[in-house]
Amino acid sequence: MNADFEELYERIRHGAIEREDALFLASNPLYLWCIADELRAKENGDIVTYVVNRNINFTNVCVGDCKFCAFRAEKEQGYMLSMDAILEKVEEAVINDATEICIQSGLHPDLEISDYCGILEGIKSQYDVHIHAFSPMEIYYVAIKSGMTEAEVLKELKSAGLGSIPGTAAEILDDSIRAIICPNKVNTAKWTEVITTAHRLGIPSTATILYGHIESLEDRINHIFKIRDIQKETGGFTEFVLLKFMRKNNELGKMVDRSVSSQESAIVHALARVILHPYCSNIQASWVKLGLKDVQKMLLSGANDLGGTLMEENISRLSGSPVGEYMSPDDLERLIKDAGRTPRRRNTLYELL
Ligand code: SF4
Predict the structure, then answer these.
(1) Helix axes 19-26, 29-44, angle to 10 degrees
(2) From the CA atom positions of the chain, what is the Rg in Å?
(3) Percent of the chain with pLDDT over 90
(4) Distance 16 CA to ligand 1 centre (A)
(5) What average pLDDT does this structure show over 114-142?
(6) Sheet bearing 305-308, strands edge to edge
(7) Please, are residues 126 and 87 in contact by the beta-carbon 8 Å criterion?
(8) Nearest residue (CA) to ligand 1, atom 3
(9) What is the chain's percent helix, strand, coil content, to nearest 5?
(10) How far apart, in whole angstroms, are the C-alpha atoms of residue 42 and residue 255?
(11) Whole-angstrom Cα distance, residue 227 to residue 232?
């Protein structure tokens, strides 16, 4: 290692990486992957975690118009699950050892805070399970529909049984990109406000990035630095989840004339590890988005978590996910062992089970 590299590595180890360092590393991927893997080994050992969970998308009716979405439907064509149907899905999940129910849905124009609390209370009254639900966009929309602030909405949801929130709807935290790919979603400032409000109220969240569409390498790096800044301030992120853009059946897919190589995915996963070090030690690769072979490669590029078994996955499937809607714990563990790592089941808050 020459002196410049040594100095850079020391900066990264001490959490003092700069944007220019990240850009430099992205153009020196072998070096980047080495550092990312070393930091992963230091922070997580050879353990790769996953959670047994179930996704429930209780409605696909949505007033939004995100250009990457193949899930939404107009009210006339869409569905809305009854409480009984939701509880049946929870029952099936719990029988299969799920510790987490993940609920995300469209922005249904007829729903208010009482409907969202009703879902949480209905589940919690019957099952001792962690509910990870409602993106910052859903929380913002419910607040508008209910004439409340986001803080009031979050407090009510927490009292009704909300355990944590998904940090989805982040996409790329740059308003010029958001204006093209999700013009009616919360802007960067509002996403940040909802997430930091949740953290301050004691509601942890994940953080996400949607990469592989119209954004540049610099945009990806800036996004990860924004996540880092929030994490330094609140410490409320449990993990950073990298979501590769799925291009089938959506408008954005027609606008983007390229696909994302596994090398490109490995670079952005490794960048997440080095930029977020030492503030966020869980970097999650998505088997649904990447497929099984590529997700194993991410374990060599800084990732230490494979997310959930899911049991039911609608959003990526409709956009062309190459793999199924469910991975059994046995299959996930085999995948992890085949990559030379030790699988461990965890709960939503990263306590090993
Ligand atoms: S991504 Fe979510 S908010 Fe956007 S259109 Fe699809 S369902 Fe609606």
Answers:
(1) 110
(2) 19
(3) 91
(4) 36
(5) 98
(6) 205-211, 237-244, 283-285, 305-308, 47-51, 342-346
(7) yes
(8) 64
(9) 45, 15, 40
(10) 41
(11) 9
277 lines ligand 1 (CB under 6 A): no
Q: What's the gap in Å between 17 CA and the centre of ligand 1? A: 34
- Which protein residue's CA is at the shortest distance from atom 2 of ligand 1? 106
The pair of structure tokens assigned to 66 is: 């995100």
Task: Say what the pTM is.
Answer: 0.95
Q: For the sheet containing 130-133, what is the strand order? A: 53-56, 100-103, 130-133
Residue 133 has pLDDT above 80, yes or no: yes
d(CA 327, CA 287): 9
Q: Give the whole-angstrom CA distance, residue 105 versus residue 273.
A: 29
Q: Enumerate residues 6+ apart whose C-beta is below 8 A from 148.
A: 113, 142, 156
Domains of the chain: 3-346 (3.20.20.70)
Which residue has the least CA distance to atom 4 on ligand 1? 66
Mean pLDDT, residues 46-67 taken together: 96
pLDDT in tens, 83-115: 999 999 999 999 999 999 999 999 999 999 999
Q: How far is the CA of 72 from the centre of ligand 1 (A)?
A: 6
Return the structure tokens found at 94.
């719990």
